[in-house]
């Protein structure tokens, strides 16, 4: 038993040491050169992106824990958040900070933007599904479907416009879908705070 614990401790210790050494090397090589201002800005942008995508990934992990029947979606969300962070961080270091990679050009920027949109949307869907309770009425389920459907359609249209530049979708369509999503989500979160009819 002591041997097993020693091996586990050694593996964890190796990860900690490797991370520490990598951070120190990065500081010595990149953050002490003549381009310190530019590199500091890039690192700050990557840190913010890590914070945001960690929250997105946590939404997936939390859904898999609270609602095991949606574990596949939760795992997919966490994976998308990791991939989106990697793609956005690489582009941020190469081209400078830009929110969610949506302003980057080229094929790499397109891939990063689409991955970011998928990570954001799936994490929002995870939050909506995390409000599911046993014994809900049909109205609550309908509101949840409206919120998820409007968000999915909104993201699908945005991705379509990124991939096919000739497609023109008016801002009114986005505004209607966004309004449905916001209103349905707000109502759903309020209903989650109220007791179920059978509890009353």
Write the layout of secondary structure elements.
Elements: H1 2-29, H2 36-66, H3 71-95, H4 106-129, H5 138-163, H6 171-193
End-to-end CA span = 52 Å
Shape, per Cα inertia axes = flat
Percent helix among the residues? over 70%
Order of helices and strands: HHHHHH
Biggest β-sheet, characterized?
none
Query: Low-confidence parts, pLDDT < 50 over ≥5 residues?
Result: 1-7
Q: Please count the helical segments.
A: 6
Characterization of the model:
By secondary structure, this protein is mostly helical. It has helices at 2-29, 36-66, 71-95, 106-129, 138-163, 171-193. Helix 2 runs parallel beside helix 4, helix 4 (106-129) runs antiparallel to helix 5 and helix 5 runs antiparallel to helix 6 (171-193). The longest helix is centred in the first third of the chain and has 31 residues, at 36-66. The chain is flat.
Task: Give the tags.
about 200 residues; mainly alpha; 6 helices; about 80% helix; disordered N terminus
Question: Briefly, what is this?
Answer:
By secondary structure, the protein is mainly alpha-helical. The protein is built from 6 helices and no strands.
């Amino acid at each position: 038993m002591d041997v097993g614990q020693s091996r586990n401790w050694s593996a964890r210790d190796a990860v900690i040491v490797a991370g520490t050494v990598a951070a120190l090397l990065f500081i010595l090589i990149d953050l002490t050169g003549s381009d310190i201002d530019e590199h500091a800005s890039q690192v700050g942008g990557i840190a913010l992106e890590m914070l945001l995508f960690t929250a997105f990934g946590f939404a997936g992990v939390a859904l898999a824990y609270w609602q095991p029947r949606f574990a596949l979606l939760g795992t997919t969300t966490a994976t998308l958040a990791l991939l989106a962070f990697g793609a956005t961080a690489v582009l941020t270091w190469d081209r400078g900070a830009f929110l969610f990679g949506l302003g980057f050009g080229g094929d790499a920027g397109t891939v990063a933007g689409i991955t970011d949109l998928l990570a954001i949307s799936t994490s929002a869907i995870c939050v909506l599904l995390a409000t599911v309770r046993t014994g809900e009425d049909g109205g609550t389920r309908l509101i949840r479907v409206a919120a998820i459907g409007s968000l999915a359609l909104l993201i699908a249209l945005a991705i379509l416009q990124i991939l096919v530049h000739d497609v023109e979708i008016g801002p009114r369509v986005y505004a209607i879908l966004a309004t449905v999503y916001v209103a349905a989500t707000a109502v759903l979160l309020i209903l989650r705070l109220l007791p179920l009819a059978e509890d009353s």
